[in-house]
Write a structure and sequence with these properties.
- 39% of the residues are buried.
- The protein has a 7-stranded parallel beta sheet with strand order 3-2-1-4-5-6-7, sandwiched between helices. It has a 6-stranded parallel beta sheet with strand order 10-9-8-11-12-13, sandwiched between helices.
- It is globular.
- The protein has 406 residues and is α/β, with parallel strands linked by helices.
- It has 2 domains: 188 residues, Rossmann fold (3-Layer(aba) Sandwich); 160 residues, Rossmann fold (3-Layer(aba) Sandwich), CATH 3.40.50.
- It contains 17 helices and 13 strands.
- Helix 14 packs across helix 15.
Length: 406
């Protein structure tokens, strides 16, 4: 597709989210806008429900910032007023049906979630109750999880394009951690129960028995529940909550282990950050993630003692730690924002021009997950689900795959 075609016709692309700070989707949009803004034929809009806030993620100055709250507009009024060509939308509500009926604006539905999130957090186990049922009628859906994109979505009648999230740091500019200390790092919102920071915190009572100088740095605000656990276990000298930080390089370059204890994730940027700094990671069952392989140990129970055992094994064995660190960093070598931005550019141009050939190429990208791989992961997740939620103890694999108890 010749870029000269667009030199006299700008493509108006809007990103829509609630606010623009303290969140994964906000970081994603910030990076994408920054990279794609280098293309002269795009005009980008950032539309939020809330007012413009302090300490928002950075976006290029030429981006048009619209607060629906401050302008006293709804999303549809803003779309019409600004003549938006393409809207990138990431919410999970019934507004999807209305957006699908827009005539002049094409909508990309960005699925910044996981079907397991709906099961664990929303306690829903029927496709009709979820966003995925509405996705079946959407032409442009973005998925972040190979298991969903390559396997589950096909069974549910959803067509989607697999994307990575941007990397926060440039691979060649990062000085990896030397992995010579006993520091553990965790990144993300400690107030979010999905993150389950209580598990690694409780694991520290076992870790410090073997490694007394071990320090856990949690890049998040502290809440009362977690503080009470720390006080009860007398871990005040070993665990530090840093509060919200925009720049985490200092902590990453001084860490030897990363722990990701979430119930569910889609494409956690924290894991990518740890890996690009060459830091080994422990994952609690998250074998379906794009970045789950390479420098990781995946455990399939939620016992703090199990987390502790693996942490001690890594921190006490310098050779193992170095080997895992190399594998972690090597796995990020081809995760370049330049390549991701090019994939997005192709998608946006194909949608704008109605070029289904390029769209279908992206839809049928190579290196698909095999059915055997998908079923193994689903079996693993089903076992975990039965351990974690008693109401699902009798569910079969078939019902699990088809997301229905009926």
């Amino acid at each position: 597709m010749n870029a000269e075609y667009f030199m006299t016709k700008y493509i108006r692309v809007a990103y829509y989210c609630n606010s623009f700070r303290y969140g994964g989707i906000e970081r994603v949009f910030s990076s994408l806008i920054s990279y794609l803004s280098k293309e002269k034929y795009f005009i980008f809009y950032l539309v939020t429900r809330t007012k413009v806030l302090k300490d928002e993620y950075a976006i290029p100055k030429k981006t048009k910032r619209i607060s629906l709250y401050e302008k006293n507009l709804n999303l549809y009024e803003a779309i019409k007023h600004e003549k938006i060509d393409i809207l990138i939308y990431n919410y999970e509500d019934k507004e999807i049906e209305k957006l699908n009926k827009l005539n002049k604006t094409k909508v990309i539905f960005y699925n910044h979630s996981s079907f397991l999130y709906w099961i664990y957090q929303k306690q829903l186990y029927n496709l009709k109750d979820t966003v995925y049922y509405r996705y079946r009628n959407c032409k442009y859906v973005i998925s972040l999880i190979p298991l969903e994109n390559d396997y589950l979505f096909k069974k549910w009648g959803i067509k989607s394009i697999l994307m990575d999230n941007p990397t926060t740091f440039d691979y060649n500019s990062v000085i990896p951690s030397n992995l010579e200390n006993n520091n553990i790092i965790m990144l993300g919102r400690g107030t979010d129960p999905v993150k389950r920071y209580n598990l690694p915190i409780e694991a520290m009572k076992y870790i410090i028995k073997e490694i007394p100088d071990c320090q856990m740095n949690i890049i998040s605000k502290l809440n009362k529940k977690l503080q009470n656990i720390i006080l009860r276990l007398k871990l005040e000298n070993n665990i530090k909550f840093t509060g919200y930080l925009k720049k985490v390089e200092t902590y990453l370059t001084n860490s030897s282990l990363h722990i990701l204890s979430s119930l569910s994730e889609s494409y956690p940027m924290a894991l990518g950050e740890a890996k690009i700094f060459g830091i080994p990671s422990i994952l609690c069952g998250l074998d379906y993630l794009t970045l789950s392989k390479g420098g990781t140990i995946i455990i399939y129970d939620d016992e703090p003692a199990t987390i502790a055992n693996e942490a001690i094994k890594i921190l006490k064995d310098r050779d193992l730690r170095k080997k895992m660190g190399q594998e972690a960093r090597e796995s990020m070598k081809n995760k370049k924002n330049k390549l991701l931005a090019e994939k997005w550019r192709k998608l946006l141009l194909s949608i704008y021009k109605g070029d289904d050939k390029i769209y279908l190429e992206l839809l049928n990208d190579k290196d698909k997950m095999t059915d055997n791989e998908a079923n193994q992961i689903l079996n693993n997740q089903l076992i975990l689900l039965k351990k974690r939620r008693a109401r699902f103890k009798n569910i079969t694999l078939e019902k699990f795959i088809f997301y229905s108890l009926t």
